[in-house]
Amino acid sequence: MAKTKKAPRPKAETPKGFRDYFGVEVTERAEMLRKIAGVYHRYGFDALETSAVETVEALGKFLPDVDRPNEGVFAWQEFDEDDKGDWMALRYDLTAPLARVYAQYRNDLPTPYRRYAMGPVWRNEKPGPGRYRQFYQCDADTVGTASMAADAEICAMLADTLEEVGIPRGDYLIRVNNRKVLNGVLEVMGLDEGDQRDAVLRTIDKFDKVGEEGVRALLTEGRLDASGAYIDGVGLTHAQAKPVLAFLTSKSDDAAETLANLRDAVGESAMGADGVQELEAIADLLAAQGYGPDRIVIDPSVVRGLGYYTGPVYEAELTFEIFDDKGRKRQFGSVAGGGRYDDLVKRFTGQAVPATGVSIGVDRLLAALREKGRIGGSVEGPVVVTVMDRDRMAEYQAMVAELRSAGIRAEVYLGNPKNFGNQMKYADRRGSPVAVIAGSDEFDAGKVQIKDLVLGAQIAENATLEEWKERPSQFEVPRDQLVAKVREILDGQDG
Amino acid sequence: MAKTKKAPRPKAETPKGFRDYFGVEVTERAEMLRKIAGVYHRYGFDALETSAVETVEALGKFLPDVDRPNEGVFAWQEFDEDDKGDWMALRYDLTAPLARVYAQYRNDLPTPYRRYAMGPVWRNEKPGPGRYRQFYQCDADTVGTASMAADAEICAMLADTLEEVGIPRGDYLIRVNNRKVLNGVLEVMGLDEGDQRDAVLRTIDKFDKVGEEGVRALLTEGRLDASGAYIDGVGLTHAQAKPVLAFLTSKSDDAAETLANLRDAVGESAMGADGVQELEAIADLLAAQGYGPDRIVIDPSVVRGLGYYTGPVYEAELTFEIFDDKGRKRQFGSVAGGGRYDDLVKRFTGQAVPATGVSIGVDRLLAALREKGRIGGSVEGPVVVTVMDRDRMAEYQAMVAELRSAGIRAEVYLGNPKNFGNQMKYADRRGSPVAVIAGSDEFDAGKVQIKDLVLGAQIAENATLEEWKERPSQFEVPRDQLVAKVREILDGQDG
Fold it and tell me: Which residues lie across from B213 on neighbouring strands?
């Protein structure tokens, strides 16, 4: 028999690695996602919402020879008597559920299937500063077509989306590259696989940091880094390194010129030529729709995450400058990325299905909108109707009802009304723009006091009603002008 | 060493008890929740979004003497070397996270704290028809005030919410009762606790079904039911049963009369009198805001879920009729319910905090809107631009870009364009209102064919382009009138 013990009080704590979102944090994200969904809808993408839970089998994160699914996911075993229930897990992205859904419903879904999905995903990882174990993703994918028009469409949609949520043209750039081009370059270098190939790929990743000459040195004999340490080179000859450098420096302001440079870099490689042709097709399609290089560019330096993709890759970069933690200016950077991948459904059906898609970093984009002052400006606090006389509660309620009917956010103070200062502190905490005050004097005279809290000085803790009334930011108006006066003050605050 | 074996293909299946939501199922719910959030916002309620995951300790579902949390929740143990990690679980409602948040942030939150929350919750229960293990909840609660104004406010907000989402006045009724009134009735009957009290409560629950005389018989000597079986009574005398019957039949069209009847029914009970007074306060507050008995009524027959609540309880009932599974007419019924509860935060802090709140049954309300024809009418399929000539893809893309710029949902067919019939089948599957057709003839002539698919007959599988062109629902217009003509057809379809 188990011992009976008094349970201690539970701790009121957000679980480690998770967080709570309050007020505008919730509504601003919802509003941004709604705008994004509007653009996706206009492009013919359909919403899909799968459950948070998938079988570990379908997620593909199950290692068949260990008892416990690997650490990346939150997983548990379904209870049954023999302890042989299925392993279930929280989805870690929105792509794995799409693969499952497409395989499951492929006979009923249109082909190609354009779908978007928005929602939280979960990662069973060590949390760190700014790294949470639950966060939002926002994906759009087209499944079932190899046409470059699908890739071009997603790039155009991404540009439209950024403008729709409030990133002005000129402050973003969609950069497009193709995995096959780099593969072609490596092919002509005789680096189809192996350690040296991996070393070359790692070196290419440093292009943004060390530039052309740095990469040239690192691909060949090595170089001294800024700290004076000698970094060994990959050991290529300068002739071998040439196609890589041609690839990395191929970008021109003119798309046709960039493509010509790339064609040179891939030389005889059929795969490389294929990649250049795909880029050309995308560039033509985008040009026909009026998406010029001020919005979307061919840029061979897009290398991030290339390993996952099989053809075109694209990235949305915000080009305006912000100050980093150390006060240095830098570009805001990437807020979305994606590309073409082919084995989405193969795990389930054995058939390869081509697909291409993009994922927006929801928190990154929200942070960008905050940087640009597009959101986070106003707290949208309610008008607070204070309570001077408990027995008049019905009359205070009638006031807020009138304000709400006029579309004004309003509430009656429902705490203990005894200390008026507490009511004003409450209004302050609520971010209220206006307080309404009416005691028996006002009711007898058919009047009401309306206080502009934005104009007014900061709330003193123990101010008396009389002190408040003397402030110039307070107005006495006839009761039937309550809504009009509040509206006038709110309009003035907006201006 | 583990044996190496080839993993079989995973099954592409929605996990048991879960479901996938497609297209309008997602967007209609999102739109309804957005409208609800708008009303809640206007009433001064702030959004709160907690993570899906809570510690089992905070959820309060952990049985301290067993290794495994009880079955109602999906739970797992955090991994650490000693297997002593915390137990985590998916939230099973939105109230338990509110309790945790209020306890955790009580010094920073305004008091009272009005918050709303919307999102999925999870139940580890045996799934059944229409019963899922993940579903949406939509809650609004006011924490930290015992004022009846908080309860009245939520009733008014509920009425406004139903009208906002599309339930017209007259098709719903908010019914308000008070737990203390029934307790008072039982107190004057000498039934403070025990088996007989429970039997009386069960009998009260049957009032809707068996009526006044039926309840009278069941409370006393028993009765024959419809099938001819004799149902034993609770064994009260007719004098004892009188207050219960007075309570159950106290409802009048006039709130004052209902309250007077209830005052009679509770007799000398202080608790009962308290309950009646609370109902009276709510009725007065609502009357002052113009919420009459056509929207909100005092109704002592609201008994469901009374056990959980400590004071006022309220329920939103949709009064229009639908046909049930057996073709019988019945009222649509309840879509929301709530009430006052006091020990929300006590588990964490030891202090009782008064709270009152409502939960809307999201799926029920969506079903009601579907019944009323408010949603689900149009599939919102995109205009499909078909592909007659693969090499003209850029020109087809330019067409959809123009349509989208005009706010029209549009897409290019991106499947294999070889079989035109397949393109029209695709358009059918997408619910497209309009198809755009342009081959070399049209391009040479600067024209485009526009087909009204709603007007047109159902799509024949192997129709040729020529057959399609002969249909009267197809129009040839100059290329530069594409958007105007499509708009004209869409407007005609709406009308």
Answer: none
Please check whether residues B243 and B121 belong to one and the same domain: yes
Interface contact B64-A430, CB threshold 8 A: no
Same domain for B254 and B150:
yes
Q: Which of A215-219, A263-267, B30-34, B308-312 has the lowest mean pLDDT?
A: B308-312
Same domain flag for B455 and B420: yes
For residue B400, the domain's CATH number is: 3.40.50.800
Region at B159 (left for phi over 0; alpha for psi -120 to 50; beta for the rest): alpha
Domain-located, residue B144: yes
**A284 and A147 within one domain:** yes
Q: How many domains does chain B have?
A: 2
Residue whose entry in the numeric block shows the structure tokens 């956010």: A409
Low-confidence ranges of chain A (pLDDT < 70): 1-7, 61-71, 80-83, 304-307, 377-379, 456-472, 495
Place of tokens 């509110």: B98
* Per-residue model confidence (pLDDT) at position B22: 95
- DSSP character for A341? E
What pLDDT shows up at residue A45? 97
Which residues have CB under 8 Å from A214's CB, separation 6+? A206, A207, A223
Looking at the structure, do residues A355 and A248 belong to the same domain, yes or no?
A: yes
Q: Which domain holds residue B490?
A: 383-494
Binding residue positions of B for L-histidine = 93-95, 123, 137, 141, 304, 308-309
Contacts of B10 in chain A (CB under 8 A): 55, 57-58, 60, 347-348
Could you report the predicted ipTM of this complex, rounded to two decimals? 0.89
Least Cα separation, residue B372 to chain A (angstroms) = 23
* Whether residue A252 sits in one domain with residue A389: no
Residues A358 and A389 in one domain: no
Query: In 3D, which of B10, B291, B14, B86 has the Cα closest to residue A344?
Result: B10
